[in-house]
Design brief:
alpha/beta, binds nicotinamide-adenine-dinucleotide, Rossmann fold, six-stranded parallel beta sheet, NAD, Lactate/malate_DH_N, L-lactate_DH, EC 1.1.1.27, 2 domains
């Protein structure tokens, strides 16, 4: 009989800026009994565990933090992958692909066997491409492999529209969809404030110059923060922690998330319901003609990148096999 599971756990692979901020957020807003940190930089890992543990002793959280292995992570309720290189100032997310795909591939070899109930949450960039490959490498059902996608971009969109409309961000329903990257687009035609169409509630929002300014803000927000402080961590840490909460509490919340789109042949962000089983339902969204074209362009771009990366991954796996054979000879 399988051993009874007594603890709920979230494993965070990579405890640099994003991973440690996520861990801290999960301590302050507990949703599981333990947070397991995994990182090959052992001195950093131990220091993060000690520092984060210090934040648990005041007694206002039941969540404990410990260091673990990739194998431990494979048995967690949620595995959040922040492991990998990050953008240097001025660098695009796609330029990280080669380095982060190698790391992803090694992570999945080290994590096996992965619990069939684990939800994978990809944060490392380029997040849509890595989500696509995580789905292939993990062997988990598509519904359990999710990327944070444009959830952060959509939060930034809410923030700026809230300022323009003089209303709380929580009253804005507007999504950035597609790639978490340069080809992302705003679904203007479905945006509302409360239940009022954005075009009625904020007439200036139909002006092309206004739209271009907002789109440039959401697309470029990360770049300007990275240029000034070297990383973005609080926004994504908070967003990833919220997604963990929706999963652990089976909240069945609608969010724009990156997941596999069979009709487009790639992972990109669309609205979906998320709970303990991962994506439980895709929420259809009406797009106007322009938005449909933007979605198509976005998918074409991502598919082209996937094709190149697929070859690179195959060569990588062949090399690993040959090295393994050499070791055995
Ligand atoms: N999706 C988003 O919206 C979003 C937002 C911000 C950052 N990011 C991405 O998140 C990633 C992490 O950013 P960061 O600022 O924390 O970087 P960082 O360099 O501070 O941390 C990355 C950590 O990953 C670790 N790592 C490397 N290989 C590993 C492995 N095999 N297993 C476990 N850990 C491993 C490194 O040792 C390092 O500590 C980057 O790819 C960045 O672009 C995504």
């Amino acid at each position: 009989m399988p051993e009874q599971k007594l603890k709920t756990s979230i494993a965070i692979l990579g405890c640099g800026d994003v991973g440690s901020t996520l861990a801290y957020t999960l301590i302050l807003n507990p949703v599981c009994s333990e947070v397991i940190l995994v990182d090959p930089k052992t001195a950093l890992l131990e220091a993060q565990v000690r520092d984060l543990s210090d934040a648990t002793y005041r007694g206002n959280t039941g969540t404990r933090v410990r260091a673990g292995t990739h194998k431990d992570a494979g048995q967690a309720d949620i595995v959040v992958i922040t492991a990998g290189a990050k953008q240097k100032p001025g660098e695009s997310r796609l330029s990280l692909l080669s380095r982060n795909l190698h790391i992803l591939s090694s992570i999945f070899s080290a994590m096996q066997p992965i619990s069939p109930h684990t939800i994978l949450l990809l944060v490392a960039n380029p997040v849509d491409i890595l989500t696509y490959f995580a789905r292939k490498l993990s062997g988990l059902p598509e519904s359990q492999v999710i990327g944070t996608g444009t959830s952060l971009d959509s939060a930034r969109l809410r923030g700026i529209l809230a300022t323009k409309a003089d209303v709380s961000p929580s009253s804005i329903m507007a999504y950035v969809l597609g790639e978490h990257g340069d080809s992302q687009f705003i679904a203007w035609s479905s945006a509302t404030i409360g239940v009022t169409p954005l075009s009625m509630a904020l007439p200036s929002s139909t002006d092309p110059t206004f739209r271009a300014e907002i789109a440039s803000h959401t697309r470029g927000a990360a770049g300007s923060i990275i240029a000034a402080k070297g990383c973005t961590a609080y926004g994504i840490g908070n967003m990833a922690a919220s997604i963990c909460k929706y999963i652990m509490y089976d909240q069945l919340t609608v969010r724009p998330l990156s997941f596999y789109q069979p009709e487009l042949g790639c992972c990109l962000s669309m609205p979906a319901i998320i709970g303990r089983k991962g994506i439980t339902r895709v929420m259809p969204i009406e797009l106007d003609e322009r938005e449909k074209r933007e979605l198509e362009d976005c998918a074409n771009g991502l598919r082209a990148v996937i094709e190149g990366a697929e070859k690179e991954l195959e060569a990588d796996q062949e090399l690993a096999k040959a090295l393994e054979k050499d070791k055995g000879a």
